[in-house]
Amino acid sequence: MNIISWNVNGIRAIVKKDFFESIKKLNPDVLCLQETKAQDHEAEIALSQLNAFHNYFNAADKKGYSSIALLSRIKPLAMTNDMNVAEHDLEGRIQCAEYPKFFLVNVYVPNSGQELVRLDYRKKWDADFLNYLTNLEKTKPVIVCGDLNVAHTSIDLKNDKANYNKTAGYTQIEIDGMDNFLNAGFEDAYRKLHPKEVAYTYWSYRFKARERNTGWRIDYFLVSLGLVDKIKSVKIYSDVLGSDHCPIGIEIEV
After folding, report:
1. CA-wise closest residue to 245 among 6, 19, 18, 43
2. What letters, b where the CB count within 10 A reaches 16 and e where it falls short, cover 44-80?
3. With 90 as the cut, is the pLDDT of residue 254 above it?
4. What's the whole-number mean pLDDT along residues 153-179?
5. 100 phi/psi in degrees, rounded to 5
6. What is the SS3 assignment for 231?
7. How confident is the model over 67-104, as pLDDT tens digits?
8. Which domains does the chain have, with CATH numbers?
9. Alpha-carbon gap, residue 126 to 177, rounded angstroms
10. Which residues contact 76 (CB under 8 A, 6 or more apart)?
11. Global pTM?
């Protein structure tokens, strides 16, 4: 199974670029999109060309904000939205597709914000999300994909010292949150296969960051340990344009 994850930073904007051509080349069995910034019916219209897929959406209550979509060639056994925690379930951040051998969770983790105004909230979110994942894992293994809004170690961002504990996505609280996922039995699939590779998935639109490759790796596949030996490849498609993030992909034997 080829799973592609991509923070598109606005589905209605990206489909006016080379989005459909990119998806054709990436050829996913499952496509997980984050930050679609669209209500369900708006995302459905924008993605209507992808008619070989079963389409599922989870929009934020607030229009034009957050929101995610999951498109699957194989119809999942079941689809659910959100983690069933009231304070977290208004922003369209989680989808869970159940397949015969695993759960696939599409997630757009909250950003801690300018001046870290949401850092306390983010800490709570991470803890509740981990609880949600470990409950799923009691039934079958889990693959998590999406924008986790954290660079885990210094190799995962260009300017680590300048950003540490100052910039959203690289505070010790967020790093500890990622440590907690890994310590609970989830593997960072890209790092498992590429332990020392410098590769980024996000570049600011400012300061010619992408041209200069001043980036961050904040998009991930986290995989239950029981599935790690099934991973065939994990790729970062940094040459695919259209968003301030690039797609990432995993091929896994299921």
Report:
1. 6
2. eebbeebeebebbbbbbeeeeebbbbbbbeeebeebb
3. no
4. 98
5. -55, -40
6. strand
7. 999 999 999 999 999 999 999 999 999 999 999 999 99
8. 2-252 (3.60.10.10)
9. 6
10. 54, 56, 97, 98, 99, 104
11. 0.98
Q: Which residue has the tokens 């301030």?
A: 244
CA-to-CA distance for 61 and 53, rounded, in angstroms? 25
User: 211: helix, coil or strand?
Assistant: coil
What whole-number distance in Å separates Cα of residue 221 and Cα of residue 38?
Answer: 24
Catalytic center residues: 108, 147
Task: Tell me the sheet residues that pair with 251.
Answer: 2, 233
User: What is the percent of the chain where pLDDT is above 90?
Assistant: 99
β-pairing, 186-188 vs 142-147, is unpaired
Task: Say whether pLDDT at 175 is over 90.
Answer: yes
Cα 34 from Cα 59, distance rounded (Å): 10
pLDDT tens profile 185-239:
999 999 999 999 999 999 999 999 999 999 999 999 999 999 999 999 999 999 9
Q: What is the DSSP string of 109-142?
A: PPP--GGGTTHHHHHHHHHHHHHHHHHHHTTS-E
